[in-house]
């Protein structure tokens, strides 16, 4: 399906009497959804996607109101008769800011269309809104679809932890994936159901003991049953086809294979990648670089004796804390990643 071509045809097609020129592109035989590409004639031919769905009620409206606070995305709703019944479905019109880069705009629409198709929920709108919220975080950060070198290294380290935990906990796939909360701007990268947490750090320096702490909350264990710092020493290399060093697309593919039988986990993981700023459509940008883990991760127990700055000990007038931490004199735990947690 060529979305760009469909929109071009809709713009030049003979106008209908209504607000939109439309084309139905997908529907569900169980009548849970219809997906329609549309041109809004009253908004200077703005492109959008219309989804005819069962109404999500107050809970979905709260989410929509939150999404609409962001200038980049606008969701409007209006009722539509459901032929053959006395009930009303709802049209959900989803638009992006006109200034959105064209490639990202079409990637967004394709993702929303696929989300509707893959949803197994009776209320498809809830899955749609969950994915739109992931895009909302993407646009908030004004991401372009290509991560910086430092962000790539950090993501690789977090994905390495995620992959290990998935391999060791095949019966708790969804719990493991949802425990990865770093993309959601939580204080730690992983928070597990038992409230144990893991903060992942990586250094590219020759001194593997020095790490950067980005704020006063990263090593704050308040409200947690345990907090652990996992440190990788990582090098990023230009690679050839014969190289055995994994790239970002490679480790993501390996994780997706581990999730292949869990639809919910696959959906969650895709949304998390989106929130962190990784677009599958831009994977060609990452194929030339691989990552070498120099040492097995060193694991530290962030207990009361561990050196750190915590919010409770910092004057309120100080609003931003960043510092480098030297771990050379700190004891490490003789544990594996999986030994740290109990799902």
Can you describe what's shown?
The chain has 343 residues and is an alpha+beta fold. The protein folds into 2 domains: 3-140, no CATH class; 149-340, no CATH class. 31% of the residues lie in helices and 24% in strands. It has 8 helices and 12 strands. The chain has helices at residues 3-12, 57-67, 102-118, 124-140, 149-168, 173-179, 248-258, 263-276, and strands spanning 20-27, 33-40, 46-53, 73-81, 88-96, 190-191, 196-203, 210-213, 226-238, 289-293, 298-301, 323-326. It has a 5-stranded antiparallel β-sheet. Strands 6, 7, 9, 10 and 11 form a 5-stranded mixed β-sheet that branches. β4 and β5 form a beta hairpin. α4 (124-140) runs parallel beside α8. The radius of gyration is 23 Å and the shape is elongated. The relative contact order is 0.12.
């Amino acid at each position: 399906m060529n979305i760009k071509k469909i929109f071009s045809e809709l713009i030049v097609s003979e106008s209908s009497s209504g607000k939109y020129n439309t084309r139905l592109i997908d529907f569900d035989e169980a009548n849970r959804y219809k997906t329609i590409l549309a041109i809004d004639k009253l908004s200077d031919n703005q492109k959008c996607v219309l989804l005819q769905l069962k109404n999500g009620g107050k809970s979905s409206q709260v989410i929509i109101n939150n999404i609409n606070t962001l200038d980049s995305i606008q969701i409007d709703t209006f009722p539509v008769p459901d032929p053959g019944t006395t009930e009303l479905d709802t049209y959900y019109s989803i638009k992006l800011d006109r200034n959105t880069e064209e490639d990202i705009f079409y990637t967004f629409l394709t993702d929303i269309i696929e989300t509707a198709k893959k949803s197994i929920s009776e209320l498809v709108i809830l899955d749609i809104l969950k994915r739109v919220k992931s895009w909302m975080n993407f646009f908030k950060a004004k991401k372009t679809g290509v991560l910086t070198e430092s962000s790539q290294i950090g993501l690789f380290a977090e994905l390495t932890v995620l992959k290990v935990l998935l391999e060791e906990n095949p019966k708790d796939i969804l719990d493991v994936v949802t425990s990865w909360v770093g993309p959601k701007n939580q204080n730690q990268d992983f928070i597990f159901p038992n409230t144990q947490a893991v903060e992942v750090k990586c250094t590219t320096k020759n001194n593997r003991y020095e790490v950067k702490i980005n704020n006063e909350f990263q090593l704050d264990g308040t409200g947690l049953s345990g907090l652990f710092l996992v440190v990788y020493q990582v090098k990023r290399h230009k690679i050839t086809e014969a190289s055995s060093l994994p790239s970002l697309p490679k480790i993501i593919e390996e994780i997706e294979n581990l999730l292949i039988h869990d639809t919910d986990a696959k959906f969650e993981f895709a949304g998390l990648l989106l929130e962190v700023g990784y677009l599958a459509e831009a994977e060609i940008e990452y194929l030339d670089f691989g990552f070498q883990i120099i040492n097995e991760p060193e694991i530290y127990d962030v207990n009361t004796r561990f050196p750190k700055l915590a919010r409770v000990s910092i004057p309120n007038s100080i609003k931003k804390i960043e510092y480098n931490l030297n771990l050379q004199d700190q004891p490490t735990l003789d544990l594996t990643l999986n030994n740290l947690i109990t799902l």
